[in-house]
Amino acid sequence: LDDINIFRFPIRKRNRLLRSRIGNKLRLWFGTTDDINSRWFSHESKNTINSMFEDEKPDFLFVSLPPFSLYKTAIRLSKKHNVPLISDMRDAWSLWCTSPFATRLHHRIVQRKERKLFKESTHVLGVTPELVEDFKSVHPDIETSKFNIVYNGYDKLPVQPEDKLNSLLKKKIIKVGYIGSFYYSPEDEENKSLIWYKRKGLSKFHY
Which of 47, 65, 101, 204 has the fewest Cβ atoms nearer than 10 Å? Predict the structure, then answer.
């Protein structure tokens, strides 16, 4: 990677109100995406990034989502600088089901944003065949030729998966280490199984 130029841009911190519990709830209720894009593509960063497009003249723009809010800047930069857009979807945006949408309207708005991104993209990448088929099903008006599958991981591994699996199966106890976060909320899972009028508070409107 010695011949690759990497430019990093800081993300502004949320203000004190948005970091509060009430502020976070308001952000989730009145918004349909995260707020990373607005905290990243602003002020000096915006001017510098636009200047970089003029100087570097990239052959294409590659955006990897999530964070889903970056879709807006990706489309804007692609159009402004006439650079083909490739959208790498690591998760299903409009089919995100680890937590409910605030309302059915929120879900519809997200679907429209997702469709806009796909229409403006030259290629749309998904990490599994199932994910790509889901996108095709949700957006039948998008050309199917735009969708491609690119799996997560590496082309070649130092140890063949089959050999590693065979050695693991010989053990009586297998210990697994996990690094990351679990997208799971007991409250959200419980609400999914309840009829809307039996839910509490604003969760009655969840979809």
Answer: 47
